[in-house]
Amino acid sequence: IKMAGDSSFPDMDSDGSERNEETEIVVNVGGVRQVFYGDNLNQYPETRLAELINCLSGGYDSIFSLCDDYDPGKREFYFDRDPDAFKCIIDVYYFGEIHMKKGICPICFKNEMEFWKVDLKFLDDCCKAHLSEKKEELEEIARRVQLILDDLGVDASESHWKRCQKYIWKFLEKPESSYPARVIAVLSFLFILTSSIVMCVGTIPDLQIIDAEGNRVEHPTLESIETACIGWFTMEYVLRLISSPNKLHFVLSFMNIVDVLAILPFYVSLTLTHLGAKLMELSNVQQAVQALRIMRIARIFKLARHSSGLQTLTYALKRSFKELGLLLMYLAVGIFVFSALGYTMEQSHPETLFKSIPQSFWWAIITMTTVGYGDIYPKTTLGKLNAAISFLCGVIAIALPIHPIINNFVRYYNKQRVLETAAKHELELMELNSTEGKATISKSELEDLVREGKEDPFYSSRLKVSHSDTFIHLLSEEKHYRTRLQSCK
């Protein structure tokens, strides 16, 4: 920072504040020089730039506590910081708010604001949302890295049952952990597929048999296959429940509830078949069993456990609740309006099919969704015109939210791939840092490092400290500030 104008700082008189307001300073940040005036800087006296006005009165100790270097000949102070971020931060002195430029890493920008002692409250809401999103991404990367490190390490202080429990959990929940785990995942997928096929094939009349009461029932062979599949599902669920580290979270998880719904009907129907006849009529038991057997379709949702594509689609739909809600609202309004108009216009025809407005809802639904079964249709000219307008409005209403939903799917899919790559990259950097000074490192040695790091809740610094652009602060207690040369490109 160089004082512009006179070769020396202006002398302070009795009106020191007035002199400060007239002071003109030049800030050199990464080779870029900016001119500031005291009246602008004094609006925010707690910031680093405002402190520069009186820094010379405190001597060199005060000077170097605020800057990286100082040239007494030029009276210039140097800062090795990101000049692009600095150009955004100084907007607070002129406009009272800050906006991030496109292409600047939000985490680096936050660190720059902390260095210049500018409060985050001056950051605009749109940029705060971007910063929050980036924080969530880093938390997700840190969580994935932590899970992988947990899988690598084995705590010798744990009991044999705890170690066995962790092994079973990885064996059933993480197919990528080992080759046998991948085999089990494929086998589970085949059981789900087989059970679904058996459920469908069992409804073919030619493959059914006649029981003693003359009713058609499933073939015994298909029932045996179904029993074997249910046995596999039951054993898998019980083992996963026993080995789960958080059993309450496991039981309340959506996919595990689906697993229970896929298994439970078999045992309930079996119980009703053998014991229900004593408590109620046989026909009621058969109806109850038939109603429970149809719940077997829930097991098809078990495929989502082994399909990353289905999981991505599910999360994308969750992110699209707003768009889906707008679609349903548009359709609901259109159904009500066009069904009422259709009922009113068709009353003049003697053979009208529109008996009431609630009955016309069905016609409006199949018309606006362009299904058109033809069981109810208008017969008057005005009714046909109303029908034409209704299905045109239906096409427009359905097409409007499709693009945002597709964008949510693509964005989430790409984000998951980036997070997965970033987690692997961070692990490679940790391993590279841990081998500093060593020619090679074996897997057992890496596990030893992880076990040593278990004493620290954030793991050993040998596995964490990384000065790359993907450094994750959440894995370290120390606070690291990137310089201009280390900032994200």
Automatic annotation (TrEMBL):
Q: What membrane topology was assigned to this protein in its record?
A: Multi-pass membrane protein
Q: Which Gene Ontology molecular-function terms are recorded? A: voltage-gated potassium channel activity
- Which locations, inside or outside the cell, does it occupy? Cell membrane
Determine if Cell membrane is one of this entry's keywords: yes
Q: Which CDD domains match?
A: BTB_POZ_Kv5_KCNF1 (cd18381)
Alphabetical UniProt keywords:
Cell membrane, Ion channel, Ion transport, Membrane, Potassium, Potassium channel, Potassium transport, Transmembrane, Transmembrane helix, Transport, Voltage-gated channel
Its main localization is: membrane
Instruction: Identify the InterPro entries for this entry.
Output: Ion_trans_dom, K_chnl_volt-dep_Kv, K_chnl_volt-dep_Kv5/Kv9, KCNF1-like_BTB_POZ, SKP1/BTB/POZ_sf, T1-type_BTB, VG_K_chnl, Volt_channel_dom_sf
Residues annotated as domain Ion transport = 182-416
Give the transmembrane region(s). 183-204, 248-270, 324-341, 385-406
Q: Which domain of life is it from?
A: Eukaryota
Q: Where is this region: Disordered?
A: 1-21
Function description: Regulatory alpha-subunit of the voltage-gated potassium (Kv) channel which, when coassembled with KCNB1 or KCNB2, can modulate their expression and their gating kinetics by acting on deactivation upon repolarization and inactivation during maintained depolarization. Accelerates inactivation but has relatively little effect on deactivation. Coexpression with KCNB1 or KCNB2 markedly slows inactivation.
Subunit: Heterotetramer with KCNB1 or KCNB2.
The record's similarity note reads:
Belongs to the potassium channel family. F (TC 1.A.1.2) subfamily. Kv5.1/KCNF1 sub-subfamily.
This chain belongs to which protein, by name?
Answer: Voltage-gated potassium channel regulatory subunit KCNF1
User: From which organism does this entry originate?
Assistant: Probosciger aterrimus (Palm cockatoo)
